[in-house]
Amino acid sequence: MLYIFKVNRTPFIAKCVIDAQKMHKYLCSLVHTDRKSVNLLYKLDILHDLLYLQSDIRPDESPYLKLLYTEDMDAVLAKMHNEYEIHILVTTDTHMKKTVNGATKRVYVPSLKRPEWISEKLKRNGIESYIIKESAKRDVRFVHKSDRGGKASITIFDFDVYGKITDIDALRRAWHTGMGLHKAYGNGLFLLYR
Questions:
Q1: pTM of the complete model
Q2: Between the N and C ends of the chain, which has fewer C-beta atoms within 10 Å?
């Protein structure tokens, strides 16, 4: 289920905005479990004071969030099929594995290669893309315990995608679980344009 909330600007929410770890813990407290157990994904649109939260279970009410709208994405996806034309916004990080001197590590995909990279990722998840437009980029900051490196950040991107469904079952799985790394920090969510 997709829940769309109006975010009430408070000192607590301001802290969550600058620390994705704090936001992650807060959202998990609303569903009383860890993120992965309920496929919790989110996208915070602070410019419009909106939070898009997808979860298998309904989150608790909160003084910081006002529920505006609920969408049954399973019902929406059940009406889709292979060859169905689709327009989505997908939020993801852009990491790839790179091996240098026998050591493999994750690095960001260079900007010129991002359209090809996201097209390949979408293809593996059931979408053949026609048009991909990088529509936003932001650094998401979070705080680890000092023994894990202290402050850190990741860069995530929004991609506006037009395409068609080539494997509806793969797309449904990806829609539920999200795409890419760092899903605890506002990454991996698909949003459907209509």
A1: 0.88
A2: C
Cα-based distances in Å from 166 to 63, 82, 97, 127: 42, 5, 26, 5
What is the rounded CA–CA span in Å between residue 111 and residue 48?
Answer: 27
* Structure token pair of residue 91: 């939020």
Q: 11-18 vs 20-31: helix axis angle to the nearest 10?
A: 120
SS (H, E, C) the chain: CEEEEEECCCHHHHHHHHCHHHHHHHHHHHHCCCCHHHCCEEEEECCCCEEEEECCCCCCCECCEEEEEEECHHHHHHCCCCCCEEEEEEEEECEEEEEECCEEEEEECCHHHHHHHHHHHHHHCCEEEEEEEEEEEEEEEEECCHHHCCEEEEEEEEEEEEEEECCHHHHHHHHHHCCCCCHHHCCCCEEECC
What's the average model confidence in pLDDT over 51-62? 96
What is the structure's pLDDT at 146? 59
Residue with tokens 């059931």: 126
